[in-house]
Structure formats: structure tokens, C-alpha cells
Amino acid sequence: MSERILDIKNLSVTFGGLHALRDLNFHVDEGEIVGVIGPNGAGKTTFFNMISGMVTPSSGDILFEGKSIIGLDPNQVTQRGISRTFQNVRLFANMTIAENVMVSQHCRTKQGVWGALFNTPGFKKEEKEIREHAEKVLGFFGTRLIGYRLEQPASVLSYANRRRLEIARAMATSPRLLLLDEPVAGMNPKESAELTDLIGKLRSEWGFTIVMIEHDMNVVRDVSDRVVCLDHGETLAQGSFEEVSNNPEVIEAYLGRPLEKKSAS
Amino acid sequence: MSATIATDTAGQGMPEAVSKGAFDLDWANVAKSGSIAALIMTFIALSGMPDGLDARPIVDGVRVLTIGYLTLFAVPLAFGWMIGNEVVLEGMVATKRGPRDLVAGAAVGALGGVGLTLLVVLMSNFDLRDPLVNWSPQLFNLLTFDSGVGVGVWVWILIGAVLGAIGASLRLLPAKIRRAVIVMFLTVVGFSVLQGLIDDIVGNVGETIRDPGRFSEFFGEGDTPRPRVDSVFDPVINFIYSQTGGLKLVGAIVLALVAGALSLSGRGRIKAAKASYNAKTGPERTKQTSIMIGITAVLLILLPFFSGKIVNELLANVGIFLLLALGLNIVVGLAGILDLGYVAFFAVGGYTTAVLTAPKPGDAWPEWLPTLPWWGALLVTVVFAAITGLMIGAPVIRMRGDYLAIVTLGFGEIIRLLFLSDWLKGYFGGAQGITNIPAADFGPLGTVSGVDPRSVFYLVLVFCALAIYVSWRLERSRLGRAWMAIREDESVAEAMGINTVNVKLMAFVVGAVLASFSGAIFSAKVGSIFPSSFLILVSIIILVVVIVGGMGNIMGVIVGALVLIGVLGGPKQPGLLQEFSEYKLLIYGALLIWMMLKRPEGLVPNVRRSRELHQDEFLQDAWLKGEVDTDDEDGELATEVAPA
Lengths: 265, 644
Description:
Chain A is an alpha/beta fold and 265 residues long.
């Protein structure tokens, strides 16, 4: 068995009296693509927020590469090698496309005030590297985000391209674990298929381990090694897509329980 | 301006425009605008501005053309123009410009005049001088043109109507002519307002041309004045300006004609030059930029030689506040931290320099406290300011938005009160402050003290250049990008690996250091330092400079400082319009409100800020230019689809 990159043990979080997540056990192996599904309000995004440090769990532990990341600030978590995208695209809309990707290399670079003021060779070299890395990352999405687009503000992008840029921004932090929150939401079937392809390449070419929240079952089926279904903050089922999608509890969570008596329709 | 929302199409003669009858107006709107105009005019009259500024003629010999009357005349002019404003959205039909606009303008102006008529009637019957200090016979005479109440009751209605119609008539002119008319008007007013400055500088340049030897005199220590010579430009100056102040009538007409002609012929060329500069890229552009910077630098270095003491003093003040504004611009404009207590760092800079350079700053200091030269003290000051920045910043920086603003406001006051307190009186002198601060000595380069404003100007110039360089470099660095990201969305910035606390603290510290430079220069210039120099008002005024100028834009901050501090004056420093100093805060406030409503991005906007503020229009423009990308192969516009 390959090494566990992420190991979540008995994780719970409550908001007031609400159990957003309850006793969650979950693990991700190195190089795996895990799909997280579940109806609305199941706790999927809370789950991501917790891994990325934006929400602190009430109990339980999150081990990343064997070390606990509980209590770390989001920027420290990113520094450790976990990066994420957001369900409702949150780009730096007034920064250019290049800048969006350059700024997320912040924790991998180190030049400060002195370098900038005196334009030291180290500063110039680092700026060049940041820029090159940004273009390389953006180039992953074909020609859509490079060329003349580099200097345009992110706000002019189409919805699908904003999603792509968000992934690029997360990629630029050089993570080992990438958390994608509904990467294909709002895309048409053609674009979804293309992005599904790219998610596969994120693993094979870039070596990222990926956890992905997704509602589009085609995408989940095509790309996930393993699927986890959450409902009401609990794990309902885990396993291959076929296993999970045929699990009666999962079907019930999505579609509801069949009524005893047929109501007059 | 957005492509689909054209607010003004006067004179363009849009073919589909409908014509309406001259009296087919939105009378409710006219009545509303007219009432507002009346209120504003009455308020201005009672604020004392017309009376106080009556002594400043615009054109000498014409009784009503003074700056005092202008403050009243401007209102119907502006409202007459504004009533013609019409929002024409796509699919709507514009109305043809014509007599209808004149009627509307005249009506609004006349209604505004009614306000003053009422005031005149009230003034002739009641004496309310007790609550309203400006309820004076002088104001009454001014409002009635010295002709008694019989004239006063109707004359303002007439004036209002005429001026309102004139304001509205601008809409009927073709855009080019209209621009020329506005330029003519502004030129005449500008030349009259800036009389002291122009007279001074042009006179000195003229004298130096006639007697080049004068130039060397500027470097001399002992000022043995050379015999006065007539300036080469005396004939020109005497042609334009009257000895008793204001422009001569003929001079004003010639000036207006020249300005109008220049406007008509020059506009296209300025645009072309701008476009050619913007079109250039790479080394060519760098070359042109450096040439422009070089010319500006030479002009700035030469300027103090040709300006008198008052103008130099003014420039030095502008520089001190500009330095503060540049520092605050990094904090507020780049990193988006609304710091309302920025004056704290100015105070720390000033007091640290004072304590270290003054021979005996206070009784409580131990014997070993050294007395350093100014530049030596500056190094310590910088360190101190940075530490203060860290100390104030560390608890404050974890807050966001409004909370942060209020807490910084508090810290700004705390610092001032510490300097004022009896507890630290032995160190900082309490309300008496520290008074025996020596001039800054730079050895062979000379000394900098308040007695010689020119030297202060140069010192301040060096530090402003430094601050501009720092802002410019940082904005384009890793740190600058992180600041921008934090300004846009702090939580996302943090999730993308930016240590927001450290990065924001860095902005705070850089800002604190720049403010401390300003404080150090201030204490050497004034020679004494009191807590009352560091009122909260200073923070506010610097913030207004940054906002009005254009947040996040270095050029904007410079323009803001020149306009606000230079023309209107700083918190305690008089500006070019010394007569305005009483109404300074009133004008500051009015300007700020107007800017927030009409041009929130500032006079010289930062590209990103204006994008933020005009997101919709920007996107529309980009869409029309084909820059917005449509979703790929299908060529359809992407629409947000809710997750299935």
C-alpha cells in the first residue's frame, strides 16, 4: 500500500449545536484522486475548509504527511503543501491573470523589501522565475490564459476560464495535495470532459494528489480512484464509484426514501 | 465612460433624438435642483466666504468679478449645467438640445437666486448676528450690490436665471467649443488665484535673464542684495495683472482668447502625444520616461531659485505633507489598511529627532543622552518609527476594515496624549513641547532650517523622491503583489499561502518609516515641536489628500498634495489661497463628498481602483472591444449555471 499523504482521524466540527462533521475518518494515499460527493449541506466544503485551516475542528486530528496540521493558519497549511480552489470562484478580480498566479507563489519565494528596493540580482532572478513558473502553469490550460491574456484583469475572463485560472493559481503554490471544490460547476459537457482530462494530467504530469468535491457524476466516475459520500457530516460510503453509486444509503441521501404509500400525484 | 451609458450627447446631433417643447420639462426635478441650489447659495453666503473673499478681485475694476462673488455665481452656473444631464441608455431616445435646456437652466438658477432674495429680505428685517456671525451689514451690502433692499430682492433672481441659462447653454455648444470655453474660464480664474505665485516666479526669472549675475547670488551665504533690476517680463506681467491685485480687463480678455485658441488647436496634439507614449514599449518607453523624469527634476531643482520666500515655504509644506501622503498611500492605497492614526508616526519621527538633536530637550533625560547631528538622529528615528509601527501594528493588524480604522484612530490619539501628558513632561515638555531644536547641518551642503525655506524644500524633495522610488519599487515586487491580493480578498490571500499578518505589518512599518522622515524634517524646519502639531486632523487631511488625489497612484497623491495642501493649505499651514484658510475644512469636506459621489477613484486614478469601482462599465467596454472572452468553441456567452 502506498503511503498515506492525508490521514483524518475522528474529525468533528460543530457550529453551535450543528454537527457540520461528525467523527469523520478519511485518508488519501499518495498519488490518488479521491472524489467527495454528497447532497447539499452534507459538510463537503466544511471538510475542505478544515483541511485548509480556515475552520478549526472541535476534535480529531488531521495528519498531512505524518504531521498534524491542526491549529495551523491557512497560509501555513499552504506552505506545507496543501492548496485549494473555491466553490464560488474567488479570484483576485482586479489583478492581472499573470499576477493572480504569481502572487500565489508567495510562500515558495522569499525576496523582501531590500531586494525590491535595490533590485538585487537575487530579486531579479526570483522575479524571472516567478514569472516563468506562472506562464508554465497557465500554459497547462492551452492558449486560453496566456499570450495577450496575461496582462488582462481576471475579471474579463469567462466563467469557465475563471475556474481554470483558479486551478492554475492553486497549482502555482507547488502543492502536493490539491483540493478542488467543484472544478467543473457551471461548465458545459464539452468543457467538463476536457477538464476531467486535465485533472488526470494534474496527477500524471504534475504529480499532485487530488481530492475533489464534485456534483457531476460523469466527472467523478471518469477520474476518481475512490469515492467518498458524505451526508449530514458523516461518511455514508467509501469505495469505488460503482460501489458507492449503487449503495442504497447513498441513493437514499440523494433521492430520498421511497414512500410507503404512493401519494396522489 | 461606459459605452452604453452616454450621459451627454450635446451637440453631437444624434439623428434619432426627439425634440420637445421649450417648456416640456420635468418640473419636479427642476424644483428639486433649484431648492438645493438655493440652500447651497444661502449656506455659502452665511458661511462668510463671499464677504471674506470679496477683497480678491478676479478682474480689477469690475466690481462683481471677485472671488467672493464667484463662490455664489458658481452655484447657478453649475446647477444650470447639471439640470441638462440626461441619462440615455441603450434603446432610449435622447432629447434634442435646444431652448428647452436654456429654460430649465434659467429656472433652476432663478430658484437658486430666490434663496438669496429671501436672505436679503430677512437680513433687512431681522438681526441674527448673534447665532450667525456672518449676518453682517457687509454681507448685506454685498448681496444687494450696495444698492439697498429694493435692488436686492430681484437682482439675484435675475442673476441666477442668467447664469443658469449660461451654464445650460454650454450643452448647446459643440464639444470642442465647450471645452475651449471652460478652459478660458478656468484660465482666467486660475491666473487670478495664482497671481502671487506667477508674479513671483515670472518676475524672478525675468530679472535673472536681464542680470544673470543674480543667479550666483542665490548660492551666496551673505545676502547682499544686488541692485533691483526690472524683469524682462515686467511688461507682460503689467499687461495682465493690475498693481492693486487681480487681472486687468484687457489682460483678462487677451488671456482668455489665448487660452481658448490653445485649447482649440492643442487638444488633439496632447492626445496624440499621450497615445504615442502609451503605444511605445520596452526601452523606447523607458527612455522617454527617464527624459520626462529628468526634465521634471531639473525644473524642481531650479524652481526655488526663482520663487520668493513665501512660495518656497509653501513648497516645503507641500513636500512635508506629500511625504506623509506617499507613506499613507502604501498603507491605504496598496495594502488596503485604513489607518486613521497615521499622524502617530509623524509625531514619533518629529519627537525622536527633537529629543536627539536639541541640546537640552527635557530635565528627565539622563546625562548620557547624546546630542546628535540631524542625519545621525534620522537613523535612530527610522529605527524608532519602525519599532513603533510594529508595536502599534501587532495588535491592530489582526482586525479588519472598520474595526481596524477605529483602533488606529485611537492609537493616533494615544501617542499624542503621551507626548502631551504630565507624566512624560520631563521628557517631552508636555504642552510646551521641545523648543530649542537646531537646524539640520549638512556640512559643506549647508544647513536646513525654517529660516531658509529653500533648503527645506530641497531636503524634502530628496525624501519625496526616495518615497516615490520606494512606492514604485515595492508596488512591482512580490510584496506589492501580496498587498494587492490582501486588498482584494484577505481570506483567499491567506489560503494562497500569504502570511497576511507579516505582510500587512510590513506595509505598516514602511508607512511608519516614511512618516518619520517627514516628522524629522518637520522638527528641523519648525525648530520647535508641540503636541498640537499632531492633531487627528493631520491624519484626516493626509487621508483626504490620498483619496482626492487617487488612492494607490503615486501621481495622484502628488496632484492631491499640490491641490489640497498647496492651494488650500495644510492643517495649520496656509496655502496659496490664504483667504480661504478659514473655509479650508469646509472646502475639504465638500470636495471629499463630491469626489466620493462623482469620482471615487480620485483625480488621477489608479487603473485597478477605477476598475474595482466601475466594474460593470469596465466589463461592458471590454466586451465591446472584444476583450471579454466568450466561452470557447461554442462561441456562446458564458452564463453562470447553478451547480446541478
